[in-house]
Amino acid sequence: MLRQNYVQMPLRLLIVCYLTACLWTSCTDTQPKRDIDVSGVPVKINSVRFDRELFACDTLQIENSVNALGNKYPDFASVYFNEITGFSQQGNDPVFYQSVRHFLTYKDYRALFDTVFKKYPDVKDIDAELKTLFQHVKYYFPDQHPGDVYYFISGLNFWSAVTIDSAVGVGLDMYLGKDYPFYASVQLPQYQIDRCEKQYIPVNVSRVIYENMKPFEPDGKTLLDMMIQKGKQMVFLEYTLPKADDALLMGYTPAQLKWCQDNEGMIWNYFSKQKLLYATHWQDIMRYVNDGPNSTGMPAESPGNIGSWIGWQIVRKYLSEHPEVNWNKMVLENKDAQQFLSASKYKPR
Questions:
Q1: Interval 41-67: pLDDT, tens
Q2: Residue 91, SS3?
Q3: If exposure means fewest CB atoms within 10 Å of the residue's CB, which of 53, 193, 230, 281 is most exposed?
């Protein structure tokens, strides 16, 4: 099954409480991240520079070259050409091969490939980070078998990370740095451009691995349902990436994270008083659990995706109240959201 991390929404298929000691303390304090030794967990990275092999194709023999590449990597190539690029290969359709040739020869795409190659002449350090991530995933979820990693270029088509069954794909063209001038030209908003940095690769990969294990099903769900589901995803991220700080995991700046910490009670009170927790209208829900420049109804300095952050605090509080619960089982369960909230005893001041 194909899952992706949406830097932006393409095709079809994404507080620590800052209080004094005499007040309610954050569940972050009672549920620390766990940096365990996973060096002995057997994981072998099979890394493929699909981008380089694709752009090495002979454009004068495009049909034979592309077919050879597809035969070499059948599962990923099928997803890449049909989903990621949208070229939609149907048998030996000449239009498909013309589209691929255009992609490989058009000057802007060639310039993009040159930029990616200059930025990432090799991916050894990324492989090392992903191996550690995969070892954490396998330690907590022994039935998972991550290992194959395909690096690709989508043509700035907003694909940053995908999963195809147990394989992972990383769109290197979405990690060229916030100063890369052409992100704005494809209408990527600034808050997303700020996250087009190399350090977000493991975060986005961890996110799509979780979504592959526990797909989001927003239809008919309340905001509270989605907040807790997103909160579970964030717990998955913090345990599989134990050295990453909260701001990085959320895609926030330190100032945005601090704003959340300082205003946790106000945020929760807003959701409650506006009767949003049990809203099921799509527009009322998704704007609080998806990326955005800020949060509707809150000050301009508030970050987007604030419902996911509150959901994270609820799940952390639940774990602190129930130390007997295994987090890795809890994040895959379908416990009723209202019962989960009550059991968490979440009540920020």
A1: 999 999 999 999 999 999 999 999 999
A2: coil
A3: 281
